[in-house]
Amino acid sequence: MSDINIKITDREGVTHDIVAPTDMSMNLMEIIRSYELAEEGTIGVCGGMAMCASCQVYVVNDPGLEEMGAEEDAMLGEAFHVQDNSRLGCQLHIVPAMEGLEVEIAPYP
């Protein structure tokens, strides 16, 4: 089993040190949900299909995330509260290269 350490700041401004598995095919949205860092019904509304932006996060420290895909870019083009460092948590698959990632959960519309 291989785990990474990431920091997630919730919508209340509280930072959580999270241990996330890299061997379970999870994405950041699923990690946020599993640790209950956002109110039920306000994260991953579309089920992780890059269709709602409810899992939007602001990347504070990027240890080397994969490039944004066209679907993610298009969804962020229509979302609220978008910043230059916005990403969709459902599109960030947990891999060893994400060790040290720091994100803030964006406000829910």
From TrEMBL:
Keywords, comma-separated and alphabetical: 2Fe-2S, Iron, Iron-sulfur, Metal-binding
InterPro entries: 2Fe-2S_ferredoxin-like_sf, Adrenodoxin-like, Beta-grasp_dom_sf
Source domain of life: Bacteria
The protein's name: 2Fe-2S iron-sulfur cluster-binding protein
Species name: Chryseobacterium salviniae
